[in-house]
Amino acid sequence: MIGKLSICALAAVLLARGAALAGTAEVEVTDERGHPLADAVVELAASQPVASPSTRALPAESIIDQRHETFLPLVTLIRKGGHVIFTNNDTTMHQVYSFAPIKQFAFEIDEGERSQPVVFDRSGIAAIGCNIHDRMITYVYVAGQPWAALSDKSGHATIEGLPAGDYRGTVWHPQLPLGAAPIFFALTVSGSGARAAVEVPVTAVTAKKPMHMQMY
Amino acid sequence: MSFRNRLALFLMVTLVCVQAATAIFAYSWLHAQLVEQGKRELVSAMQAFTRQLDFLSQRATDGVQVLALDYAFRSAIAKSDHDTELSVLRNHGHRIGSARMMLVTLDGSIAADTAQATRPGAVFPYSPLLRAAVAGDRGTALVTLGSSIYWIVVVPVRAPIPIAFIAACIPLDDGLVEQMRRISSSPHAIMLATKAVGGHWRVVAHTRGDTGLVLPAIANGARAAAIVTQRESGTLAIVAPLRAAAGSRPIVAVIYFPLEEALRAYRGFITPMLIVLLLALLAAAGGATLIVRRVARPLEALASAAQRIAAGNYVGPAVPATGRDEIGHLAQAIGDMTHAIAERETALTGAMEAVELARVEAVRANETKSQFLANMSHELRTPLNAIVGFSEMLEQQVLGPIGTPRYLEYARDIHASGEHLRGLFERMLDLAQAESSNLSLSREPLAAGALVREAVEMHRGLARRGRVFVVLAPSCDSAQIVGDRTKLRQAFANVIHNAVKFSPPGGSVTVTSLTQAGNITVRISDTGAGIDPALLRTVLRPFHRLRSALDGHFQGAGLGLAFASMIVEMHGGTMSVESGAGEGTTVTIALPLAEAMIGHAA
Question: pTM for this one?
Answer without folding.
Answer: 0.54
